[in-house]
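PROTEIN ENTRY
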Amino acid sequence: MAGNRMRGGLKLGGALVVLVVTSLGLAPAGGPPAEAEPQGIFKLEHLIFIVQENRTFDHYFGTYPGARGIPTKPNGSFKPCLPHPVLKKCSRPFRTNNPVNLGGPHSHWAAVQSIAGGKMNGFVEVAGKNGHGEFCVQNPTARRCRKFNGPQHQPDVMSVMGRDDIPNYWDYADNFVLQDMFFEGVDSWSLPAHMYLMSAWAASCRKVSNPMSCRSNPEPEPKGTYAWTDITYLLEEAGVTWGYFVGDGTNVSCGSPPCAPDKKATSTPPSWNPVPQFRTVQQNHAYGNVMHHEDFFDMVQGGTLPQVSWVIPGIHNSEHPGNGTMATGPPHVTRVINAIMESGYWETSAIFVSWDDWGGFYDHMKPVVVDNMGFGIRVPAFVVGPYAKQGFIDHQPLSSDAYLKLIEDRFLGGSRLDPDTMSRPDSRPSVRENEPKLGDLTADFDFTQPPRPPLILDPQAG
């Protein structure tokens, strides 16, 4: 047994030499070697990434104690005040409990205009130029805008939620890890954000069969085939199981993208599901790895969950401004987390929750710049798991690139989406996972602690 000592005697020149051998976990001679206990990230057999839609850190956690939230004055009122294109006064953040929000434009130009060279003061003006909230910026006193706008007619891109509005998310932050420097991988909208989620790049390609024909593009066309290499290619090559789970009713069998959007409220739009359009997935005939939410729950219950899973919302539970609501988004996330917690997977899993882009909402934190594609505007993010630190706030700069880095370190021996090392090189200009400014997710865990018990929350609590 490990730790036991075996004593033996040997006579050399008439003297008895006593041998003391410590087994160090080795089996006796003639038997199979004992398996060492997994250490560090190798205690994590399953990684689950839940990605919701279009919110900022300040919008959800701007008043969370200890986090890098919205700057305040000595009297506790919010300090930032952004130019309003119609009102003769600037607009400050305000508390809201409205379960439906309008948000603002969130394309590449909107990100550049909102960031405003690092001044972070263009969000209100951008909201007045396009999108669901345009009317209420241009007509701030209109009756139909009262439920969205603030007490001084601020547009809801300046709104802030608190513990009473999203209690489950705040409970996860209280009990596990809140990441207050998590940025969108690219300063653009959902499609390129999901491209970065799966491949650490967004690009346009001249030839669908040639990964070297691609060039960086923060506004790629949502059609055609994406020729560069994504993480599923490396996973397939290494025999690592994976699943990309989308809303029930989504057409997951589409093999000749672009796919027509499904009209069901439970379905996931194609722009949130770029996986079938990657050339690698098509060549590997891996469409079957794109599944529905009901498949996720069945696999958890049946003990067949892939080693790496992404859970992408349908429209109705996405929290996307103008479509998803707070009445359905947080309950969806809670049900996914509860499913893992109530299963045999809990003690060997880590769950990561983030939002794909900022949705037009205000955030005061200037993005960390790593290249000409990003990072983008800060979004909410937290980590849940048996080895996650308790009540820890991670201040490292992070993005979805850190997710890929963890996947690669855990399952791929540290291999990267790197043209110089992968068997299917492409023309990406940098290896995002090796970016010096990118933090390391292992800092969010304490692998020396016993697995922590699950925290089952009521999905209907919100």
Summary: The chain has two domains: 5-36, 41-59+163-461. The radius of gyration is 25 Å. The chain has eleven helices and 14 strands. Residues 38 and 372 are 39 Å apart (CA to CA).
